[in-house]
Amino acid sequence: MFIFDAHLDLSMNAMEWNRDLTLPVEEIRKMEAGMTDKPDRCNNTVSLDAMRKGNIGLCMATQIARYVHIDNPLPGWKSPQQAWAQTQGQLAWYKSMEDLGQMVQIKNKAELEAHIALWKTEAKNKPIGYLLSLEGADSIIDISYLEKSYEQGLRAIGPAHYGPGTYAHGTNSSGGIGAKGRELLKEIQRLGLILDVTHLCDISFWETMVNYDGPLWASHNNCRTLVDHHRQFTDQQIKEIIARKGIIGVVLDAWMMVPDWKRGVSTPQSARVSLEQITDNIDHICQLAGNTDHVGIGSDLDGGFGTEQGPADVDTITDLQKIPTLLKTRGYSETDIEKIMHGNFIGFLQRNLK
Predict the structure, then answer these.
(1) What CATH architecture applies to the domain 4-352?
(2) Of all helices (H) and strands (E), which one includes residue 350?
(3) What are the structural domain ranges in the chain?
(4) Nearest C-alpha neighbor of 63 from the set 178, 140, 168
(5) Quick one: 310 exposed, middle or buried, by C-beta within 10 A (0-12, 13-18, 19+)?
(6) Whether this model's pTM surpasses 0.85
(7) What is the C-alpha separation between 69 and 59, in angstroms, rounded?
(8) 14 three-state secondary structure
């Protein structure tokens, strides 16, 4: 089945993890043998080759570069100018993948339709389609830079990532969006960008709802009812996204899938993490909506973690193809499964891209 993945940090893996994503996952693992600088070395799950094998032909691909204030202990860039430059390096990588024929950027509805048509053919080595998304807006030096990004193909943006940011408060922080956040939301709506509410803390989320009336989704977010942590959304927040005709992409990071996950201690096997919990999240969102129209996949695979912190039944991103069978077992129809695996997000883009 064709799969749309609403959140993949491809350029971060290429630029910061120094992974050649044109190679098979197994080859990348071999190249990382003996490396200990990051906890997920040799545990990677994503490459363009694996996406192609798994029929994951379209995704939201991120730029990500956190600017941190001098008193912020989180890792990141020391000035917004440095953060902006990092996102430009990431964009250059995507462009180089286009030059190789490995990827193709989707910027408008006509390009989206053409790419979907291509993936319905039997053509060999089809390029992975990507729409550009910015995870955390701190690299937007001032509001004029958002239009620069739009001209480069940016089509979705999350105002915050982790901690307090320039435009909003994100995960593990608490606070509102402030004047700069309101200005950002106004410009997002003017440009017709998709607002990604993932990572917004509760206060910033609800202030955003008051100040924004454009298209929105949560690209990679699970349910707080199932794992009680503020990184997840409450039923009330999920219902708000549904009421605004948004989509929630479920995420495969273990600590958001099972309670009491302990980093560096728990394993997918010991915590019994599997795609069954992803199916639980999908089902919960469907029950809240009363239909299957507002949920999809936003895997975040290799988003700073690998097989050591993912579902035990996922070795590579190709294993997303196991989800349709799990949904069928729970009584979901083929039509509903197609909506969840690609139709809902693609339909959203068809309605909102120019």
Answers:
(1) Alpha-Beta Barrel (3.20)
(2) helix 344-352
(3) 4-352
(4) 140
(5) buried
(6) yes
(7) 31
(8) helix
**Amino acid at residue number 16:** E
In eight-state DSSP terms, residue 164 is B
Which contiguous run of DSSP H or E holds residue 74?
none
**pLDDT digit string, tens, across residues 82-126:** 999 999 999 999 999 999 999 999 999 999 999 999 999 999 999
Three-state DSSP state, 321: helix
Q: Could you identify the residue written with the tokens 């995704």?
A: 59
Could you give the count of Cα atoms lying within 13 Å of 88 in the half-sphere of its Cβ? 13
Q: How far apart are CA 323 and CA 317, in angstroms?
A: 11
Q: Assess contact for 240 and 208: CB atoms under 8 A.
A: no
The DSSP string of 105-155 is E--SHHHHHHHHHHHTS--SSPPEEEEEEEESSTT--STHHHHHHHHTTEE
CA atoms of 208 and 202, how far apart (whole Å): 10
Task: Dump strand ranges (E) for 199-256.
Answer: 216-217, 248-250
> H or E stretch including 77?
none
Amino acid occupying residue 87: T
